[in-house]
């Protein structure tokens, strides 16, 4: 199972927003629900708002910041912060995300993706990808917009929509909206380019391998179950379930998959901790939201921050 990063959340949300019946071969009654924002949606979400995910209070030098474990997909009913998150946002000077997906830089980078040279992958592989793309009711023409390996990873994130899990309702987007409404600046802990480099292949052969790996997961019915298990565990703040993710996800078997997991999580955590520490040391109280799987393992962010002299206390 691929893990989507925030840079892809915006790309996926744009794809999902334009999704509709993709052709005559699709049963129009079988299309997943389209995500949309409305006053009614946010009002309902606020009525059922509760704390979801994972929150730590981190203190050093007499200042208190917060660390939040986020989820890159969500449900419509999750689009309002719970009481502890709302309170924490009211006590900080800035929201820090892996990447601010609404920034001009992010928008520009996404537009530039369409201009990259197309990948040459085996025709049978492309046909499998096209079949799944159309089955998710995505416009077939958009499959050619940008690197095919990125589209395959994007499709992984969209496959949960029939279960109600949509990247358009990701907690990063919810937090961004809440921060903007409260007048908080939104900052980035990583660069847009570094996020894209996590998924862009070096050549056609690597792109083909990435697409094949994604299709193998997409074609397994169990993958949807695993995706739902991850999201539900996040919603119920079950950190032990996330900590054992690699044992039950059925997604880390090969050397390539192990290397990808290390690159996505362990290798990035020191840099993310650097960013949080730098903002805090500058005098800002920050609410740092990073993907929840970064809160697990030997290089978990709470562990790294504690080693840097922060008093770390889990709130929920």
From TrEMBL:
Region forming the signal peptide: 1-24
Coiled coil location: none
InterPro entries xrefs: TraB/PrgY/GumN_fam, YbaP-like
Key words, A-Z: Signal
Pfam families listed in its UniProt record: TraB_PrgY_gumN (PF01963)
Protein name: TraB/GumN family protein
Annotated source species: Hydrogenophaga crassostreae
């Amino acid at each position: 199972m691929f893990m989507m990063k925030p840079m892809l959340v915006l790309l996926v949300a744009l794809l999902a927003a334009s999704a509709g019946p993709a052709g005559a071969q699709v049963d129009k009654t079988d299309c997943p629900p389209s995500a949309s924002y409305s006053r009614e949606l946010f009002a309902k979400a606020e009525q059922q708002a509760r704390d979801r995910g994972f929150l730590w209070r981190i203190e050093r030098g007499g200042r208190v910041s917060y660390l939040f474990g986020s989820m890159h997909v969500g449900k419509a009913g999750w689009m309002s912060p719970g009481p502890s998150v709302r309170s924490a946002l009211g006590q900080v000077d800035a929201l820090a995300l892996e990447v601010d997906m609404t920034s001009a830089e992010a928008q520009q980078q996404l537009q530039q993706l369409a201009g990259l040279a197309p990948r040459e992958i085996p025709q049978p592989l492309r046909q499998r990808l096209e079949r799944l793309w159309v089955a998710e009711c995505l416009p077939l023409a958009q499959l050619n917009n940008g690197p095919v390996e990125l589209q395959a990873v994007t499709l992984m994130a969209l496959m949960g929509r029939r279960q109600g899990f949509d990247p358009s309702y990701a907690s990063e987007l919810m937090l961004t909206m809440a921060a903007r409404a409260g007048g908080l600046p939104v900052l980035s802990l990583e660069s847009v380019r570094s996020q894209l480099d996590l998924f862009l292949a070096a050549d056609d052969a690597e792109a083909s391998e990435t697409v094949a790996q994604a299709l193998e997961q997409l074609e397994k019915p169990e993958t949807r179950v695993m995706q739902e298990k991850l999201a539900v565990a996040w919603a119920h703040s079950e950190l032990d379930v996330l900590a054992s993710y690699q044992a039950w996800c059925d997604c880390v078997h090969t050397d390539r998959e192990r290397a990808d997991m290390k690159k996505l999580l362990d290798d990035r955590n020191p840099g993310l901790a650097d960013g949080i520490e730098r903002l805090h040391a500058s005098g800002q109280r920050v609410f740092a939201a990073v993907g929840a799987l970064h809160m697990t393992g030997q290089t978990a962010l709470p562990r790294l921050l504690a080693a840097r002299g922060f008093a770390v206390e889990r709130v929920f």
